[in-house]
Amino acid sequence: MFTEIVRVAWRSIRANKMRSFLTMLGIIIGVMAVVLSSAIGLSAKAGVTQQVENLGSNVLTIMPGAASSGGISRGFGTASTLTTKDVTAIQQQDPDVEYVAPLVSTNQQVVYGSNNTNTAIEGTTAAYQQIKNLTMAEGSFFTQTEVDNASNVAVLGSDAEQTLFEGDFGSPIGKTIQIGGVPFTVVGVAASQGSSGFSNADDAIAIPITTATNLFTGSDTVNEILASATSSSTMDQAQLEIESTLRVAHQLTPSESDDFQITNQATILSALSGVDRILTLLLDGISAISLLVGGIGIMNIMLVSVTERTREIGIRKAIGARKSVISTQFLLESLMLSVSGALIGLIVSAIGTEVVSKITKYGNLLSPVAVVASILFSIAIGIVFGVYPARKAANLKPIDALRFE
After folding, report:
1. pLDDT tens per residue, range 182-218
2. Out of 173, 294, 317, 320, which could bridge 139 as a Cys pair, Cβ 3.0 to 4.6 Å?
3. Residue pair 26/293 in contact by the 8 Å Cβ criterion
């Protein structure tokens, strides 16, 4: 009876607990690799999506062209081809652009009391807040009037605020800090935006661009221009309008290439998602190899088991056991080892993904697809790698098996 075959198979596994566990270990590790690699992939995707969303809504980023040295291009963003006049032209001529803001960056020593830090100073306009969807933790962002008047006002990133006002438990709003030796009044503290690549927006300080050019850069060139389209459906049209406006402003002929580069969120997300997919495929491939190694371990132990139980097989066949019964028993043992290993691996993986989700703060990262795939793959491995030992046991001749020592 089938239930009797299952009982005998389970008893055989329990008779060698340590050996059975070590056999299952390959499957356990393989399943953990599948589930955890999926969790890491989901975490990476969530991180990429969050970083792109931190850029703001419907954002277009315009970078300067490439400078060259000795005939070698140093890449986009290294030339000084964008100016504040380009910002004005985009504002006035492009109807599908809702907000546009220039950005100049410089590093300065910032001091408050006995605390100081060397950090990025970003000169921009009031539109920067709308483009970046910037939320204020305290105070407010500087106004366009303050930009027009080149006021000495500053908005601190959350990390910069903690560094400068460490030990000061009052509100920083209205207090004076020194940026490059020049006094600035703090008018706002931005909520945390998170880091992106090598830059950390939370450790930066925003000031009016007019103030930045007067005090620190002395030029109307900008490092980049940020623009937001009126809606997600007009992003492509807004990009075309900006391209046309800048080509006219820069007096480029039809045969000349753009001396600027425009990127949007969709382009960035697509590129980063492609990297994420490659990483996930690589991890999945390693996980599949782990499961295959586990399957080989199962087949090896089952062959050992067949050899150890040759006399038992001979006795059973001598009293009437059919080949199908012997084959089914050993195949079930292989399947039980594989499925048991998969279940243990899933339990450990669930704990692991919970730890990953708490570290990354991206919520539940346990993928149902990875769970189902690992179980099905484990069942397939149990069957595939159990067939040969099962057939070998079933094909033993009773007389040879009984004489085996």
Report:
1. 999 999 999 987 655 446 788 899 999 999 999 998 8
2. 173
3. yes
